[in-house]
Amino acid sequence: MVDYLIAIAMSSLLTCLLVWLLHPFAHRHGLLDLPNGRKDHAYPTPVTGGLAIAVAVFATLFTLNEYSAMLAAFAAASMLLIVVGLLDDAYDLRWWWRMMSQVAAGLIMVYWGGVRVEYVGPIFTDAPIDLGVWAVPFTLAATVGLINAVNMSDGADGLAGSLGLVALLMLGAASLYAGNEHLFASLLPIISAVAVFLVFNMRFPWQRRAKVFLGNAGSAFLGFTIAWVAFRLTQNTAHPVSPVLAPWLLAPPLIDCLVLIVRRLKLGRSPFRGDRDHAHHLLLDAGFNPTQVALGLAVLSLLLGSIAALVLQTNIGNETHLLIGFGGLTAGYYWLTSQRCRAVRTFTRLRVLLQRSKPFDPRNRIKRPSHRPSHAGRHSKLPSADETEQLHARRVDRTSAQQSCEKG
């Protein structure tokens, strides 16, 4: 228990310190996410959150653990993704550079770290399916898919971090349940670092905007970490956990990623070309704020992962049923979002329903305007004219999108 607390404290303090230290570094070297048409922030924001998390995690792991080839491989693959991600954040690299780095990280995981998916459980059979010669291609495809699913979800303050944190917590719970205490101990510094990062990345009453973003480096590292841990957990014969459970631990971003890739290919577009058709964009256009989107999708992810685990644990269903259920959810979401206005109208009705069911809070009562002069702090920063215009334009676009869907 003492070792657990030391790992949590060390990783948390290092993450907090590094987020603060890297802030001027980001401004000095142009590691900033600038506002544009697809983004909902109005200020240039540092994208060094992922770097802070990674450095804190590896400093903790190498300090508190003995050297091993697996840990060295994890660090090397992660640093490759971090470096390419930072270059992408600074210079906007072409998509194939990111893809090659993700495949290279997967190969390091397989051949240096010895982590791969060799079987996928008893799907439509009574015995686990051995992938054989397809083990490496399947592992690489799953790794690249998870990395890009997390990357595509990084479009609202706190969203990718919240989804990643929920997935890591469920993986930690599964490792404890399976008796894999070593893997659980390795997860603690990562969970702690992501949780501290979210303090700077989410919106709160005292923090109206994110102070730092994950960046492409951070989303790649987070997705790769989830893949590495999921493969280690589900391919360990001494502490078995069903491989079919893994996609349910990150279901919302995975389903969104699969649906968007299929739709873009169907339309003859690059699957890596950005747009505003992600789940978080639809929810924002339906009137949810970024914090509601992040918390709502994180709770949904936790709910789906917990249900899938209970289905297997209580023998209500088996791996085949879970796979069919995942496919059914994906197909249903594809149908819902095949017409953007239908999806926005559905999410708008959901928001109205949730607001009506919300208990009355006296703190939200309408206040009479005060005629006393405002005493806002002298150091409070007001948005510039350009930033105000960008915010207004996005609000107008979102309102017009809602109105056009209502007319349709």
Task: Give an account of the 3D structure.
With 408 residues, this protein is mostly helical. It has one domain. The chain has 14 helices and two strands. The protein has helices at 2-28, 49-64, 69-91, 95-111, 135-152, 159-177, 181-201, 215-234, 251-266, 279-285, 290-313, 319-337, 340-357, 385-407; strands spanning 32-33, 45-46. Strands 1-2 form a two-stranded antiparallel ribbon. The chain is globular, with a radius of gyration of 22 Å.
Produce the secondary structure layout.
Elements: H1 2-28, E1 32-33, E2 45-46, H2 49-64, H3 69-91, H4 95-111, H5 135-152, H6 159-177, H7 181-201, H8 215-234, H9 251-266, H10 279-285, H11 290-313, H12 319-337, H13 340-357, H14 385-407
Antiparallel strand pairs: 1-2
Helix pairs in contact: 1-2, 1-7, 2-3, 2-7, 2-8, 3-4, 3-8, 4-5, 5-8, 5-9, 6-7, 6-8, 6-11, 9-12, 13-14
Offer a few descriptive terms:
mainly alpha; two-stranded antiparallel ribbon; 2 strands
